Amino acid sequence: VRVILNISLDSQNVVWFLSGMAKTFKSWDVDQPMLLPPSVQELVPAGHVAHFVRDLVRDSLDLSAILKTYAEDRGFPPYDPTMMVALLLYAYCQGLYASRRIAKACEERVDVMAVTARQSPDFRTISDFRKRHLPALSGLFTQVLATAIDPIPPGASGGVMLRGSRWTGRNQGPTTIPAGAACRVERRQGL
Prior knowledge:
9 helices; 39% helix; 191 residues; 4-stranded antiparallel β-sheet; alpha+beta
C-alpha cells in the first residue's frame, strides 16, 4: 500500500522534518499587513532618552528666541521649530552632527522617528535651520537640564540624571525639587 502525503512545507521546515527534529517556530510573515499601524512612541521603550529629550524641549526649554523669528505668513509652512530643536538636541546626544546623517536617521531610526513624530526634514532644511538659529541654539544648549531622581530639599544634595548618568546635585533654590522634575545646572565641579 502506497500513501501519498500532501504536506506543504517550505524548505526550512522540510529540513527539520526530514532530520527528525520537528521543531515549530513563531510565525514570521513579513508581508502580513497590520490592521492599525503602531505608534512610533510605542516602539521606543518608556524611559528612553528620545522621550526625555522630546519632552524636555517641548515642556521646559525657553524657545522664544527661535519662535519670534517666525512672523511671516507667506510661503510654505516650515517644520515646527520645537521639533527641529528636539531633533538637533537628540541627534547631538547620539553623536550625529552632520545634517545628512541626521536626515538619514529621521528615515531609518525608530528612536529619531519618536522625536520627530515620523517627520523627515531633508538635510538642507536641517542645515538651514541650524544656520538661521545658531545664536539662539547656542543659548539653548547652555540651558543644560538635569532630572531629579529623588526629591531634593533646599540646601540639600540628591541624585540627578544628566545625559543618562547619575550625578549628585545640590539644590540651592528656595523650594524642594520634586522627583522627576527638570532642574537647571548652573555649574559643574570636578569635571
